[in-house]
Amino acid sequence: MCEGVPVNRDWDERVDAAWATFDEYPEERAGEFRDVIGKLVAELPEGSPLGPFEQACAWDSTGHSDKAVPLYREALARGLSGASGYKGRRAKIQLSSSLRNTGRAAEGVELLTPELESPSDELDDAVRACLALCLSSLGRDREGLSLVLGALAPHLPRYQRSMANYARALAGPRT
Question: Which CATH architecture has domain 1-102?
Fold first, then answer.
């Protein structure tokens, strides 16, 4: 549950349960899934940042990045990051991806670059992957590849140092 955001005691669990059924909704029934999320959102207090966040996720996950972008922005403007740093970071990652999908990759880079300096968590690799996609969309493939290799290196059973060095070299000036 998000601290400082009053919700029903089991609300987060019911949202998680709804998302667990997402794959049961084929594309032609995507609206039904968004309705399930909409009913849960309707239970939230007015002004809650969780509502637009969950709605953005539902629109995004059903192929409508254009409808998700303003909802992610609204959730962040309402203080989602303060209510839940984790969900705030997710919103930035997902918003960046949606911006890229709608032809605004530069905005995605601007949004995610500061996240490279944020306290580390399980979303670090997702930040780097999404940022790499945005950079690639802008023709900055070397920078993107550097981020991806840097994120991958710690997970390798061998060659960690080599891959980390290659990542740094790619990010440096071209020779």
Answer: Alpha Horseshoe (1.25)
